[in-house]
Write a structure and sequence with these properties.
This is 2-oxoglutarate and iron dependent oxygenase domain containing 3. InterPro entries: OGFOD3, Oxoglu/Fe-dep_dioxygenase_dom, Pro_4_hyd_alph, Pro_4_hyd_alph_FE2OG_OXY. It comes from Pelodiscus sinensis (Chinese softshell turtle). This protein has 2 domains: 56 residues; 244 residues, q2cbj1_9rhob like domain (Jelly Rolls, Sandwich). With 313 residues, it is an alpha+beta fold. The chain contains 6 helices and 16 strands. β6 and β7 form a beta hairpin. The strands form 4 sheets. A 7-stranded antiparallel sheet has the order 2-3-13-9-16-8-5, with helices on one face. Strands 1-12-11-14 form a 4-stranded mixed sheet, with no helix packed on it. It binds 2-oxoglutaric acid and fe (ii) ion (FE2). Fe (ii) ion binds next to loops. The site of fe (ii) ion has 3 residues, from loops.
């Protein structure tokens, strides 16, 4: 024991000495804990910022997005006119068919949900015979092209007569019926005669899931112009066979307009149609979960590029 302190505890030196040592320790401890709190606050706010940025990227990947057709609404008819691009000028024109009026339409009243389900079952049956290793498989009903692994096979050649055990005449009758009604809808919306437009190839079922792409054939999400991608298309139509949010997530169709994207949310029985030039640049969002089914049925004004309806051979 320090006697000088015991008796003169109030003497400044000792008093200060006795108080100073624990005080310095407490200050240091206080500074340490302040540093720790600052570190935690910094980490938390960085995490919040990163999540906010990723969220905004996912929600509006490319700026403002407007929903043209919500999955939960049943649309009678929606038509949006857009100015035609000059793409049609560089091709032979077929008056009364080649687009002078351009735009996009969506209807939920031309094909019933039940019909869409029947067509989906045809797609499931056909695609179950093959399937891409990546996330996107197709089955072209006209040519018989079917994704298998990293390639395609010709279903009709591969199965020969046995194909009659997979598809029935009613399946093809349903396709014809649906194709006819869609053709009529398009001709009315664009004010052209139905007999001036012809079914064109490819006409195919698509099945998309979230499996990672293995070849470029699986990369369905790139922005594109159908007239450029498929050549003969003047009018594109898509019939959706499954429901956004119910059967799959992601996978919305996006018209990429300057200033604001416009989305179509797939819904079984929904027909989306549009002129195939660059006035309708579009893409499909990556499917994040589940399986998305659709069928593409498109038309040309050039009779030389026309095809007959697919038949059971
Ligand atoms: O499935 C879709 O929604 C669109 C597919 C598409 O753009 C295409 O096949 O060219
Ligand atoms: Fe397309």
């Amino acid at each position: 024991m320090d006697c000088s302190c015991m008796f003169s505890s109030l003497s400044s030196g000792c008093w200060r000495a006795s108080l100073r040592a624990p005080g310095v320790r407490r200050n240091r401890a206080h500074q340490e804990s302040q540093k720790k709190s600052l570190k935690v606050a910094f980490l938390v706010s960085s995490a919040v910022l990163v999540s906010l940025l990723s969220w905004s990227y996912l929600v509006c990947e490319d700026g403002v997005t407007e929903v043209l057709a919500h999955y939960s609404e049943s649309l009678r008819d929606r038509f949006i006119e857009v100015p035609c691009s000059e793409d049609y000028d560089s091709h032979k024109r077929f008056e009364g068919c080649t687009p002078r009026k351009c735009g996009r339409g969506i209807t939920d009243t031309v094909i019933t949900r039940e019909e869409a389900e029947r067509i989906r079952r045809i797609a499931e049956r056909g695609l179950s015979l093959g399937g891409s290793d990546g996330g996107a498989s197709i089955l072209d009903l006209y040519s018989g092209a079917l994704s298998v692994g990293k390639h395609f096979v010709n279903l009709y050649r591969y199965f020969g007569n046995k194909i009659q055990e997979v598809f029935t005449e009613e399946d093809f009758q349903l396709y014809r019926d649906v194709r006819q009604r869609i053709q009529q809808t398009i001709s009315q919306a664009f004010g052209i005669s139905s007999s001036s437009m012809y079914l064109t190839k490819p006409t195919f079922f698509s099945r998309i899931n979230s499996t990672e792409a293995k070849t470029t054939h699986d990369e369905y999400w790139h922005p594109h112009i159908d007239k450029v991608t498929y050549g003969s298309f003047d009018y594109t139509s898509l019939l959706y066979l499954s429901d956004y949010t119910e059967d799959f997530g992601g996978g919305r169709f996006v018209f990429m307009d300057v200033g604001a994207n416009k989305t179509v949310e797939p819904r079984a029985g929904r027909v989306s149609f549009f002129t195939s030039g660059s006035e309708n640049l579009h893409r499909v969002e990556k499917v994040r979960w589940g399986t998305r089914y659709a069928i593409t049925i498109s038309f040309t004004c050039n009779p030389d590029h026309g095809i007959g309806d697919p038949v059971l051979t």
